[in-house]
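Lab notebook, bench 4. Still working through the backlog of constructs that have no structural model yet. Next entry is a single chain of 369 residues. Request: give me the structure tokens for it.
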Amino acid sequence: MSPSTNKAVRVTHQLKTPTMNCPKEFLEIEAGRWKSRIASLSAEEAQELALRAQTAPLFAHAYSFHLNFRFGGMKPIDLLDIAAQHGMKGVKIHVEDGEEYSLLASPQDREAFGARARELGLIVHIETSETTREAMVDAIEIARTTGGVSVRCYPRYEATVSQIISKTIADLKLLWDLDPNGKLIFTLEQHEDLTSDELVRIIEEVANPHLSLLFDFGNMINAFERPLKALQKQSAYITEVHIKDCYVIPDRGGWAQTGTASGTGHLPFTDMLLDLLLLGEHEPQVTAFSLEEEAEYFAPAMRFPDEGNDPFIAHRTASLTPVNTDEIDQRLEKERKEATAQIDFVRGLLFDIEKRALASANQASGDDL
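Model written out:
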């Protein structure tokens, strides 16, 4: 596997002149109704929402600094300091982030990484880009050495969809043996090829209480799904989230995505954030909101409306955010600024939700008098 494969997709072409106009067929009727939904909550529900927005567990994601890891000499331990500086709850880092300095390539650095995380009071989540036994063994070992509590994975097979599902179920049933004491949390991410229904089927057939779904704000697009519909279908099993934004681009009858600054793309950003905060009846269901800014990242369509009952998914090679190395210093600085801006943007939305929820709670309490 080549370095930095935490964003692996089939790259067969790049659209030459992408339009930034959102395809009409992509738009969702439910989008933009977050304010009215908050207003419909009871006083107790609105107060709980306000608390969840105020205390949402934000994580720094290594992919926000993907180019800095590739070209800027950034090391995994640096992500911990960034998270601490911004008052975040923890970090999500891929086993190969940092290239030759990665947690996979440098076993001697894992204990130091874990010690630094404990010193800063940060939670560690580990990510890998396969579900194979070999990949999961490596990720689990890294999680244990660093004090990590969660391992994210996704299938990356060249096969028909039915074969991918069968292989993934078989892979994830091994978690009983790989983590017999159930000390780790495992999440399966929708990573651009499988649909929400297919992911739910995998979770239900594996039937491991320590396995749930990681919901990515934009990856359902490549599987020809709409965000709010995908969230609804996955909702019973979502425990972790990747937050990002993107443009939706028509691609061979399907949809491609290209990353953009959070709040500037085509996704129903605040609606998704609200829906995720509301998951869990007695306590928050989502335990990690990971900020994964991916400006300029590109992923082609992988599922299509006319594909048939059991389409073939071609091999997915490593896909990296493109960069002009002649302007690398400026691009690395731009990436760091984009990552910081996303933190501020998401916190601003959370504050808006909190403020509106408190106002709604006060209004509902007054109506009850």
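Notes after review: The CA atoms of residues 127 and 152 lie 5 Å apart. The domain at 24-367 is CATH 3.20.20.150 (TIM Barrel). Flag for follow-up if needed.
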